[in-house]
Amino acid sequence: MIKIKSCFELRVSLCDSCKYKQFKSVDDLLNMGYDEKAITPLPKYCVQGEWSYHLDTVATLAAEYKQQRGEKAKQVWWEEQERFWNDRMEHGLACRSARKLEHEKYEARRYEMLEKIREERVKRMNEKLTELGWEKEAERYLKTEPYKYVYKEKPLTDDEWAVIMPELTALMEIEREKLRKEEIGEHIKRRIDKWLKPAFTAFILSRPPNEINPNILEVALSDQWRTVLCTEPFSEDLTESSVQSAGSQIPEFAQSWRKDRIGQLLELVRKSKTYSGQEVTEDVLHLACTMFRCTNCKCGGPGEVNTYAHTLVHSCNFLWMYSPIVQVAPRDAKHLPPPELPDDGYSARKRPIIRLYREEERHILTTLEHVGIWVGLDPHIVFDDVAHEHMLSLLDTLGWSCDTTVAEMEERQPYVECFCECYHDPKKPLSRKIYRWKKAVSIII
Ligand SMILES: [Zn+2]
Ligand SMILES: [Zn+2]
Ligand SMILES: [Zn+2]
What we know:
Blueprint (H helix, E strand, L loop, with lengths): L15 H7 E3 H6 L13 E3 L2 E5 H13 L3 H61 L3 H8 L4 H4 L7 H49 L9 H5 L2 H9 L8 H9 L1 H22 L20 E3 L10 E2 L1 H5 L5 E3 L4 E4 L24 E4 L5 H6 L4 E3 L6 E3 L1 H14 L7 H7 L2 E3 L16 E3 H6 L3
Parallel strand pairs: 7-8
Antiparallel strand pairs: 1-3, 2-3, 4-5, 4-10, 6-9, 11-12
Bound molecules: zinc ion (ZN) (3 copies).
């Protein structure tokens, strides 16, 4: 009889041809002339979907079985065999889970030990670098647990330290530079909070309501504020007078900002069918019959038309400052460096390109990264000739002048019931509905 010496149950992975040679199904074994009694006490294995038994062991058992004399002896032998093999299987199972447990314990102990070593290494490197004058830098660097220096299986020795010290010193230089930049960033953020925000708020509150004005980021990037925020020595706070001088220039900056945007919009009006070949001044923008439409988006509902003020603040004209494409070069640089595309998977088409004059100005962008920035009048915005015609006939119906302004319409708020075929599908029964004036011009089908 084959004795399994080891306390482990024997499990062997065999190649297919060996497997079929060494394991046979009950049917095969019976066909080979073996007695069922010599087969059934044995552990069975699934080979190709059929319960199979180890051929050599079956042969040994069959020989033993044959030697038993008398039914009773045969029965005793059979029961003994069954017990024996059952015990073997149970023992094997217990061994396997004990081994697994042992292994898990070992892994946990090892992990604990490695963690201790890592902590110890970080502590020693920190001490040594601090002795060399890199206290803040070492703290910042080692917090990230740099794999190369921390994840070792042995504590840090003096020999190893001699080898890695020059590398770490070079890394500390880099950390020092990063810390310096971070500090500057903190200064700039504090300046924005303490000086720019109140100045900007004061400016907005001083203006008439509904006037188009630059946002805080655009003001921060105006020449005066860039200079004040990023070039005054960081060792001291800004002076009242330098802030006041930058603050007093916001209205002028806002005016030229407005003029530039209005100029872009007037260009659109001049290109329209309605005004082609005519002299167009800013007054036209304030007329109720001057309507624009963004053909790119459905903001405000399908076919929404907008007056000029809404068109200028329309969201398609803005991009969020998050992760912009940056170009840094002094103002008088002859050649611009190639734009730096941040490495973060967002489409370059959806990023604003920002020209900076100094590295420090990046901190303005990070501080105000949730503010949108104007990227030019969206090319999908058009002067709406059809809405213009409708507005004129609406004014005509009301018996009002065709020079009626948006402000007057807003004040008088006429409600409009539309009968013109442009508002009704001729196949459907007429529905009587009234609209606000702008809506009435927007919903032409
Ligand atoms: Zn084989
Ligand atoms: Zn749009
Ligand atoms: Zn119509």
